[in-house]
Structure formats: structure tokens, C-alpha cells
Amino acid sequence: MFISDKLVAVLGDNSWIRKMYDRSCALQREKPYEKIYDLSLGNPVFEPPPIVVATMVKLLQSGKKGLHRYLPNQGLVMAREWVAAFINQRSRAASITSDLVMMSGGAGGAINIVLNTLLNPGDEVLIFQPYFVEYTHYIHNFAGVVRFVPTTPTFRPDLAAIEVALNPRSKVLLINSPNNPTGVVYSAEELQGLAELLLRAGRRFGHEIALVSDEPYTRIAYDGVAVPSVFDFYPHSFIASSFSKDLALAGERFGYIAVSPHCADAQRTMEALVSSQRVLGFVNAPSLLQHVLPELGDAMVAIEPYQQNRDTLYQQLLSSGYRCVKPQGAFYLFPEAPGGDDLAFIEAALRHNLVLVPGRTFGCPGHVRISFCFEPAYIEATLGIFSRLAHEFGIG
Amino acid sequence: MFISDKLVAVLGDNSWIRKMYDRSCALQREKPYEKIYDLSLGNPVFEPPPIVVATMVKLLQSGKKGLHRYLPNQGLVMAREWVAAFINQRSRAASITSDLVMMSGGAGGAINIVLNTLLNPGDEVLIFQPYFVEYTHYIHNFAGVVRFVPTTPTFRPDLAAIEVALNPRSKVLLINSPNNPTGVVYSAEELQGLAELLLRAGRRFGHEIALVSDEPYTRIAYDGVAVPSVFDFYPHSFIASSFSKDLALAGERFGYIAVSPHCADAQRTMEALVSSQRVLGFVNAPSLLQHVLPELGDAMVAIEPYQQNRDTLYQQLLSSGYRCVKPQGAFYLFPEAPGGDDLAFIEAALRHNLVLVPGRTFGCPGHVRISFCFEPAYIEATLGIFSRLAHEFGIG
CATH number of the domain that A61 lies in? Predict the structure, then answer.
């Protein structure tokens, strides 16, 4: 066996995502003249705001030198200032400065860098079920231990369950709001509750517990719902985020990490994050985009198509008899699988040329994930399928 | 202490690089009206070939959709085909296909991905002294053990020393040719010798030993010297490389990994590398550049300024009495520090407004590294300083 035990385990665990991808491809081969509706991936079809592309072109044609050179590992000051201003604008405290921001690869890279910086082998990371499927791998990369924490039936943080899960090896609570796969947005009260609980636990165990907020969907929230900043509630908090969704730059791997100014050893922790980015081989966030960001103002992708998709899909599911939490943000729905067996429902959907992801991928069997980051017309074409599936499963 | 023991160690080890950077900045502040010559960094001042920028602009203005979306973790087939053709062109065997190539972040990311894929905790990685300073951190990231192997006095691979270092925990030999910091290029005979030795050891220990070739300087070699491909000599070999130097895209973090078709479990190993790229959070190589690469043909940066710099600096060092191996590739010189104390020499150089890196950074005290990836006029302006330093140290 040439590859490491850790990667053998990862390969074994790939099966579900890979299987759905393979099924989707096979389906298209089997039915070359039929339309396949693949709502399995969170890869938005929308393009970046025009100013992103225009600024890239302007800089490339400007003759300005050094746009593609190594940058300081922490990133360009101007880009970090943009991020600091963005975070402060969302926060009551508004107290972060650019020296506590590092530009990084996408949020996946950012979370790896944070975990590498914080975890000693055996340290525990708490994650809520359902969880983004890669979290467990990120934690295992650095010999951390995953501690799953159930949420309430409507996927809200369950303080009692967290209290039970906390123990002296707890080092990090990793949260994601707006949430993939549920669309839930944690309220100020919920973050306040989490903060009090973590502070008490930290005092009890004699060490701080880090709150890491994975928030690439911060700017994708509906009906004007507020997405409060963890920095307003808990001192030892970290933001790991990206421009993958709100600037539609998922493939360019561009994001950032921010440390709360009230975090223990904040400056030294940022120094360690910068070193971590270097030694993991990320080195610096993509250089051209770091030059572009400061010129973007508050440009972002149009949220209207997402809101429209959420509304039409949610209405259809509800009127067809599905049980589903209404997403407040992100671009996923996570209904219960009619009949209770997510795999049986996924198979039935495939027979209707519809590709979904089983909830067990997210540690939550009995549900399915529907991604709606597609053109509204594409989503509308699937509504009848959901209705027919409801009839088949006897809920419609 | 909020940060992990591993990162505390990395921070402690940062001291030399950081110190030289701080000294360079301090020097410029102390002497605002004097010119400081900073030859400490391998961050080329040259721009990418015009076709790189032109193709980026062309694609950005084409209205083509999806240039910035997530790509398959392994990368675009067209980009992988470019890499396969490039590798085959340099190899007698010419047998690699695009399914054994993955597009990745820069070479630093690529090496981390390879090590994460291959190493179980406690597995040993052999590296030659002098070594690129980050290698030890890359190995420690995945709980690997570093085994230093001395080279000959002219920095060539020393087969007897490697034989002594090999043991049942040996898993990887990590090499770098053309070499940073010495400029040495390993010959076909040397690679053949390494291969035979590794094959014998693999048979003795009952497991294959991987040969990982870090080769971002492959296209930067002088006097027409051949840079042979490891794929021609050893079955279990990996290439980890980037376009940082030959396309001057260091800040964009764009490179690749290739697995020899003769490697044990080659296909499955590539699958594991692809998963490793995903779970470490690299996800995919920058998407726009993956679309650009297939259109670049054999464009690369002009090598003439580097060759000119090597010639003038090497001549100056030789005629001033320094002892130095003549670099065959890359853009560094690694002379002995006159007087034998690299730190004393570095301090003396700073008094002449010249910033170099002490050899101890590369596990090789008694030498200094001179980077020459700068405009020839900038390099020429330093020649007199090297001559004056020679006099000061009594060798001129």
C-alpha cells in the first residue's frame, strides 16, 4: 500500500459524493436526449459582478509591474483593509484593524490553516449535525478529534447538547451560518448563548475555546435577515471566509481569515496563522485578485435569482407535502426525505432525471440536500418532479 | 498558550528569514538616501511572458462563462494535457498521460499534498543538505520525520551518505534540481545511481520508497545543460512543480503534480492525491489560469538576464577570491562565506547595504545565498561590494 492510512480513509469516505457525481454522468450517457437536472453541487452558474472582471482587465492592461509576484504571506495591506472595513460594517464593535486580517485561499484553505494553527493532536473540534462534509477531513488532517453535536429539529444550536459535548479536550467550536446544507442563520441571541457557554467552559477547563465561524454565505441572506458577526459576542473568535459565493470566484480560491481583537494572544495568533499559511504551502492568496479587491466597493452577485429560487422551490415543497425548514440564507434546501429513507428517495429522484445529495453525507440521514444556485428557469423545470415524487411517496 | 505546539516551533524557526527581512527594512529606514541591495529573496522582478497576460485579457473579454467556477479537483483536461506533453518532451520514455497529472497550487502546495498523501506518522523523509528551508516544516505538517543527508563538497548527491541514511522507516526522498540554494543540476548518471539505490532499499525493506522531485526551475538552466526527468530513471517517482519561476507567476500559486505511470498503484495514488488536494482545502488550481495554460505553447520568461547575472556575479566572486560552485540552473549562488562564519559575513555585507541569507538557514552554515533574479543593472551595482568584502575578509 503506497498511500497513507489517512488518505485510504478519505478515499473510502469519498464514496457518496463520488457516487452521486458518477450517477449523474451515467444518467446523461444513458439518456442522451433527455434533460438531466443536477441539483447536487453548490457550484453557482452565475458570473462574477462585471466590476470584478473589468478591474482584472484594467490592471492587466495597465502595465503595472509586480501584479503576479509573491506577496507578503499575510497579504496586501489594501486588501486586508477592505476586509477589515467589511467586517466592521457588519459588527457593532467595529474594532478590527487590518493587522488582524490575513488574505488566504478559499474558506476550505482558511479553515485548514486555522485548525493547523490551533490543534494539538487529540484536541477536539465540535461541529453541529448536519455539517459540511469536508469538516471531518479538515480536522483529521491535523490529528484532531471530531465531536458531533446534534442540533434542534429545526437545525438551531442546541445549548444543552453542546454543554454535554464540551470536555477538557475541547479546543474549537466550528460553526457555519448561513448554513450549508440547512440555510439556517444563527441569531444574535443564539450567538450570545453560545458565547456564554464557551466562556464558562473555558473557565472550567482552564483554557480558551476557539469559536471558528465559516461564513462564505454571509452576504447571501433573504428577506433582510441580519447575519450577526461572532466578533460581537465572543472574544476568542475567528472568521474564515471566501469570495467564492458572493463574488462567484469559487474556482479562484480567494478568501480571508480574521482574528477578533479580543482573542487571547491575538497578535501572536495572527503571526502563527501567517506562518501556517506559509508552511502548508498556500504561501499567499492569489496576487492579482488581492490587487483587484480594494477597487470593488460593495459589489456582489445579484441575490434576486437565489431568493426567487428559494421561494419557488420552498413553496412547491410545502404545497406538495414535504417538511422543510425555510432557508434564511445560502442556497440549499434540506427537506425530510418522504418515507424517511434518503437513499430510497435519491434513487426515485434519479428515475425522474433529478440528482440530489443524501442527507447522510452531512451526518443527517432521512434528509436530502437540494442546491438552488442555478438559473430560475432551470429550477422551475424541476418543480413538477418534486410534486410527482411526493405522490409516489404518498405525501402529496 | 492558544496556538499549537507545532506552530510555536515554526514561529521559533522563523527567526532567520524574518530577521533578514527586518534588517533589510531597518537598513532602508536608517539610510533613506542610500540604495540598499537586497539579494535575499527569490522573488523575480521580471514580468510574465506577454502571451500570458494577453491570453488572460482575451479570455476575460471573451464573454466565455464559467472561467471562475469550481473545477474538478484534478483540473481541466486541456491544462493537464499541456503538462503531460511538457513532461513527455523532456523524457525519453514519454509515456505519461493527462490522467496522471493534477493541476495544483504552487510547488509548496504540491509538495504538501504529496507528503499528506504518502506519509504515515513517523515515516521518514530524506532531504539533502543544503535544503530549501520550508521542507522541514512541510514534513512536520504530517508528523513525518526529517532525515538530513549530506551532499559532496560540490553539493552533488552522495550515494554512500544516502545508503547510510536509508532505513526501514524511509518513505520518501525529496530532491530539488536545479537546486535552491546551490544551482546544481543532477545528471542522468546521478539520477540513475539514486534510482538503483532506492530500488535496492525498497526490496530490502519490503516497501517502495517514493522519489519526489521538486522542480520549479526545470526550464531555468544555463549553457544548454540538460535537466533529466526523474520519470526516466525511477518508477515510484513524483514531480511537484509550478509556473512561479518560468512564467513569473509566483504570487498566483499555480503548479502541478505528476505521477510516473510506472509508480506502484499509480491510478489509485493519483486518486489519493486528488482527494488530498480537496481535503487540505486547496480544492482546485486557480481556474482562470487553467484555461490560459493550454494556449501558451512553449512561452516562458527570458533566461538571458539570469544567465548574464550568473556570469557576471560568478566571475566577480571567482576573481575576488571566493570559493563557489558554478550554478548550472536556478537563480542563486551559494559561495563559502570568507572567514567561514556566515553570520559575520552577513553582518559585514549589511554594513555595505547588501542583504544576503546565511547558509545556516539551509542547514549549511559557512555559506551564504545570493539571489540573482533581478535586473542585470541592479546585480552589476553589487559587484564592487563583493570585491570590497573580499578585501575586508582577507581573501581578495
Answer: 3.40.640.10
Q: Are A252 and A341 contained in the same domain?
A: no
pTM for the whole thing? 0.96
> Are B185 and B101 in a shared domain?
yes
Q: Do A7 and B263 touch (CB under 8 A)?
A: no
Q: How far apart, in whole angstroms, are the C-alpha atoms of residue A161 and residue A164? A: 5
Residue in chain A closest to B13 (alpha carbons) equals: A275
State what percent of residues in chain A have pLDDT above 70.
99
Owner of C-alpha cell 512564467: B247
Say how far apart CA B209 and CA B118 lie, in whole Å.
Answer: 10
Contact B134 A278 (CB under 8 A): yes
Structural domain ending residue among the three candidates A237, A265, A295: A295
Q: Which of A138, A103, A284 is nearest to B109 (CA)?
A: A284
C-beta atoms of B3 and A272 within 8 A: yes
Q: Which grid cell is B83? A: 503538462
Q: Verify that A337 and A221 share a domain, yes or no.
A: no
No. of helices (H) and no. of strands (E), chain A: 14, 12
Q: What is the pLDDT of residue B41?
A: 86
Which of A48, A263, A281 is opposite residue B138, by nearest beta carbon? A281
What ipTM score was computed for the predicted complex, to two decimals? Answer: 0.95
B156 and B246 both lie in a single domain: yes
Domain count, chain B: 2
Task: Write out residues 127-156 of B within 8 Å (CB-CB) of A.
Answer: 134, 137-138, 140-143
**Can you give the pLDDT at residue B42?**
86
Residue ending a domain, among B295, B317, B344, is B295
**Nearest C-alpha in A relative to B42:** A70
| Contact residues, chain A, for B264 at CB < 8 Å | 2
Q: Of chain A residues 247-266, which have a CB less than 8 A from chain B?
A: 248-253, 263-265
- The secondary element (H helix, E strand) that includes residue A390 is helix A383-392
Cβ count near A67 (within 10 Å): 21
Q: Is the same domain home to B232 and B366? A: no
* Same domain for A91 and A75: yes
Summarised one tens digit per residue, pLDDT across range B46-100 is 999 999 999 999 999 999 999 999 999 999 999 999 999 999 999 987 789 999 9
Q: A56 vs B61: CB contact, 8 Å cut-off?
A: no
Indicate if A185 and A82 belong to the same structural domain: yes
Q: Are strands B237-242 and B255-259 parallel, antiparallel or unpaired?
A: antiparallel
State which residues form the domain around A42: 5-48+302-392
